[in-house]
Structure formats: C-alpha cells, structure tokens
Predict the structure.
Amino acid sequence: MPDTAASSVLFVCVHNAGRSQMAAAFLTHLAGDRVQVRSAGSAPAATVNPAVVAAMAEAGIDIAAEVPKVLTTDAVQASDVVITMGCGDTCPVFPGKRYLDWELPDPAGQGIEAVRPIRDEIEKRVRGLIDEIAPAS
C-alpha cells in the first residue's frame, strides 16, 4: 500500500449538521495534521444540530463554531476517501477515489441520549479509519 500520510477524507451527509460533523471533528481531533479533513452536505442545514454539539462537548471536542457546508464536486475531487452517511445518489463519483458508506442513524430531531450512541459508533469507525490510512508512526 502506498504511503498515505497525506490522505484526505471527505465526510458527506444530507444536512452536514450531525454525523458528518461528528466524524470530521473526531478525525481532526484524533489524527491531527496526518489527515486533511472535509465535511459537506447535499442539502446543508442552517446550523449544526445542538444535540450533536452537546454530545461532542461531552467527548471533549468543541464543534459549536462549525457551519454546515454544501457538497461540491471540487471537495470530492480533492479527497482520497469519500465517506457517505446517507446522502444517497447525490454524491458525485470519480475514478480513483475510495468510497465508503457508513450506515448510521440520523441524529436530526433527536435528543442527546439518542445522539450519544451514534457519536460513539462514529468515533469507533474513525479510529479504525485512522489505523488504516494514517497510522501513528
């Protein structure tokens, strides 16, 4: 496998207000500068889900200042790995990219009690992704 120390990952979900924000925050927090991280949504919400912000704060990660971003073709083309979280057919597909789909419940409209297990599953998957694409030296 080639050296992937400069891997870039794009997390995509419809609203970019929950799952993709949590995944991006965990990857940034855990991998630091070993991975370039982006997140976006096919139909971004106005703000990040407050229950998601609270759940991440419990994990020691502040995402209160994050803003949902629109999915662009450029973001997909600039990423080595594209991880979708329920955006369906709206994600453009390009040759040479690695695509993963993480089936996860949508935290939209859920309280923090429902968001915590989603957060914990995302953290587990992100840790596995880091071990694969950017292991600590």
